[in-house]
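We modelled each protein-ligand pair independently. The example shown here corresponds to the coenzyme A entry; the chain sequence is given first, followed by the ligand as SMILES.
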Amino acid sequence: MDRIRRAEEDDHARIVEAIGTWWSDSRSPQAARELSMLVPRLFLQHFAGTSFVIERDGGFLGFLVGFVSQDHPEQAYVHFVGVDPARRRGGVARRLYEAFFDIARQAGCTTVKCVTSPVNTGSVGFHRRMGFSLVPGDHEVDGLPVQGDYDGLGQDRVCFVRELA
Ligand SMILES: CC(C)(COP(=O)(O)OP(=O)(O)OC[C@H]1O[C@@H](n2cnc3c(N)ncnc32)[C@H](O)[C@@H]1OP(=O)(O)O)[C@@H](O)C(=O)NCCC(=O)NCCS
């Protein structure tokens, strides 16, 4: 039985390991390790209460790292989400997002935001299905609104926003 629970600091090592493994089909081992640096331990020290993992028989199936904005308390933000490739398209990420939406609502948030890379068309499709709108960009790539250099030179992003009813 799949079990969802709040994340804990001790989950950090397994999240790093999961990123290195789950992304190895689409990236070199080195690039997958570099990706895991987007989730340093501090997220599990300071935002575990708004982050979730789903596991089965002690093994990770997926995780979501998110938080309520310190500067904009009405906004929640999904920083990173990942699902075991063997378990994708089975509702794991939907469950993680719905748990996050619930606690964001309880915290008084009215919107959820996140970003993805324009090449990550799977993420764009997923977020659209989850009710997110695409924020207008400064140019388009394959019909997607893109914010150029959003995260630094050459680091373009597609930005999403979803109202919390
Ligand atoms: C994006 C990701 C998190 C989706 O996880 P998942 O568990 O497969 O998603 P779910 O099964 O919960 O799907 C929820 C909805 O999104 C849709 N969806 C999922 N992946 C999709 C895709 N690649 N393209 C289009 N729609 C997609 C599903 O069909 C489902 O719709 P429905 O419930 O209306 O039928 C997963 O593919 C993943 O880990 N990708 C790599 C990491 C990544 O890109 N993260 C996001 C950026 S940090």
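The chain has a mean pLDDT of 96.
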